[in-house]
Design brief:
The chain is an alpha/beta fold. It contains 14 helices and 14 strands. It has helices at 29-36, 40-47, 55-68, 74-81, 97-112, 126-138, 153-157, 184-197, 216-230, 248-259, 273-285, 303-307, 319-335, 354-357, and strands at 4-5, 86-91, 116-121, 143-146, 165-168, 178-182, 203-208, 240-242, 267-270, 295-299, 313-317, 343-346, 348-352, 361-364. A seven-stranded mixed sheet has the order 1-3-2-4-5-6-12, with helices on both faces.
Amino acid sequence: MTAVKQQTTRDQATPGRKRSDGAGRSATVKDVATLAGVSPKTVSNVINGFVHVSPATRERVQRAIRELGYRPNRVARNLRRGSTGMIGLVLPELDVPYFAELGRHFLTTAEEHGRTLLIEQTLGDREREAAVIQGLGDQVVDGMVVSPLALHGSALANHLGTVPLVLIGERPSGGLADHVVIDNVTAAKEAVAHLVAGGRRRIAAIGLQPEPYIGTPLLRRTGYREALEEAGLPLDPLLERETPRYHLAEGARAMAALLDRPEPPDAVFCFNDALALGALRALYERGLRVPDDMAVMGFDDIEAARYSTPSLSSVAPDKGAIARHAVDLLLERIETPDRPAQEVVVGHTLHTRESTEGGIATTAH
């Protein structure tokens, strides 16, 4: 098993903001409490992930921690509470930009809670997902956040209960575990409705997948189809393209296949930004103009979307909120293992850029 460990240079507090009296010492819990306007006990409760802290107070303390650069003594604290101080993050593919960006948010959030983060990838393989969940739980972590692709339903239930666990993404858990999601159906509908509002009438979809990948692809397809139905546009199954993975090359191949059809589309909704960037490349190679000849919409709003030529319109899940809610739920689960499972729906924003309308606009939801 290969784990990527968030590194700290030492267990002691690292230098943060200096005191105004010029003493030059590292920030302490008392400094954080003074800046946040709370008691040192409240700061300790936030660092240790205790649940009985209001969201506003927690955010104020975490902001003070970031500003001061405060780093708690993890070894001593973990010995006191009888834990490893480590939490796991299990993702499908670390080289997919969305997961890389999401992982960075988790690293930051874990650090704010004084936790070390171990990251493992599964490549979306069913057996590997099961092995990683079981293996991390049996070894060094107090709990884990998992983004499963293949495991769901009863298969996933067989691996729950051995270690505190929170799910992210859209794999159905049947209410068996804490779950942080976005409203993929609504987000997809809004993306396609934007294409319709721009006068597009033959809108393709790239990113459908067969079983067992029924989570994200199914929900985004549902939103795509509902948007077409509400607009009174016919559903053409020949405009829906499956891709084995959500990679650049798959987007380019799917786009090329759509362009080879007797009646190609005039817009395409891609189920992630990598597929959309691949589609942009295929359109460029065919000498087609975006958005004049073809509008392109992505999903995930990775950094590359803002710097592609043309810039890519995309749905932006609130990655920071996903990380914050997932870690908060996990720490609550570690503290209160028998509480009922919770589901948190995180917001999203539709960023419309040059690939759909030649301008830049933002709509938050």
